[in-house]
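Collaborator request, handled under Task 6.
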Amino acid sequence: MLKLIKHHMESISGIEIYPLISFIIFFTFFVLMLIYVLKADKKHMADLGALPLDLETNTPDHEKEK
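Structure tokens returned to the collaborator:
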């Protein structure tokens, strides 16, 4: 099975660039996300982290009227 796939991949011209492009896209995204996390405001991140636990801000408006 692997020989069949390998043969078809070798017959496609220019296919060797796709793994390199995929790696560059992944690596760039990873580095950009790392920079974003390191430069992000820590208080804002703490507020975002507390959102699921904060009942007053997560309560829908129709339930607040009760």
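The cover message to the collaborator said: "The first helix runs from residue 2 to 11. The radius of gyration is 24 Å. Please let us know whether this matches your experimental observations."
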